[in-house]
């Protein structure tokens, strides 16, 4: 058995740095996008055990359903997915495991801030960003992207 199999190659290190850079760019784009749509970014990269949320924001009314007419601000937990030159949509890349981890982090955030999840309007969103040759080609904000069906 070779111990070297766990050592990252130069190519692997380059890919990890590029992926991290793409992710940071995507999170910056998403935060600016939310702000332009009336949201106030509360925090970024909030870590819980387990779980992590890329962006937590307070957004104007509506929980996301077509019949929801509430105007009370909504606490929004946002997963940002950025694709750069790879096949497939960023929207398709959230696993059930990631969804569950994000939900746990959302509950942990609310608990840490004395917010009751039963009385606080909140949702789990996705912002999917596509990049092509270093430019943003699309931003898709999917409200209530992670729902009970995905978590069960």
Walkthrough of the structure:
With 152 residues, this protein is an alpha+beta fold. It has one domain (7-151): 3-Layer(aba) Sandwich (Trna Endonuclease, Chain: A, domain 1). The chain is 32% helix and 30% strand. It has three helices and five strands. A five-stranded mixed sheet has the order 1-2-3-4-5, with helices on both faces. β4 and β5 form a beta hairpin. It is globular and about 45 Å long.
Chain-wise SSE layout:
Elements: H1 10-36, E1 40-47, E2 52-59, E3 74-84, H2 96-112, E4 122-132, E5 135-142, H3 148-151
Parallel strand pairs: 3-4
Antiparallel strand pairs: 1-2, 2-3, 4-5
- Helix/strand/pairing class, anyone? alpha+beta
Q: Classify the fold: give the CATH topology.
A: Trna Endonuclease, Chain: A, domain 1
Major sheet: size, sense and barrel closure?
5 strands, mixed
With helices defined by DSSP (H or I, 4 residues minimum), what is the helix count? 3
Note the quaternary state here.
Answer: single chain
Number of domains: 1
3D shape: globular
Q: Over all CA atoms, what is the radius of gyration? A: 17 Å
Classify the helix fraction into a percent range.
25-40%
CATH architecture: 3-Layer(aba) Sandwich
């Amino acid at each position: 058995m070779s111990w070297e199999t766990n050592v990252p190659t130069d190519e692997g290190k380059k890919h990890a740095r590029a992926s991290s850079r793409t992710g940071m760019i995507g999170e910056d784009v998403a935060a600016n996008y939310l702000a332009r749509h009336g949201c106030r970014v509360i925090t970024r990269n909030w870590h819980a055990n387990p779980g992590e949320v890329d962006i937590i924001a307070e957004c104007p009314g509506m929980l996301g359903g077509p019949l929801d007419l509430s105007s009370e601000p909504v606490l929004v937990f946002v997963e940002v997915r950025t694709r750069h030159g790879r096949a497939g949509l960023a929207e398709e890349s959230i696993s059930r495991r990631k969804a569950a981890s994000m939900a746990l982090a959302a509950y942990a955030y609310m608990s840490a801030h004395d917010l009751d999840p039963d009385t606080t309007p909140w949702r789990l969103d996705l912002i999917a960003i596509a990049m092509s040759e270093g430019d943003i080609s699309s931003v898709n904000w999917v409200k209530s992207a992670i729902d009970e069906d995905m978590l069960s």
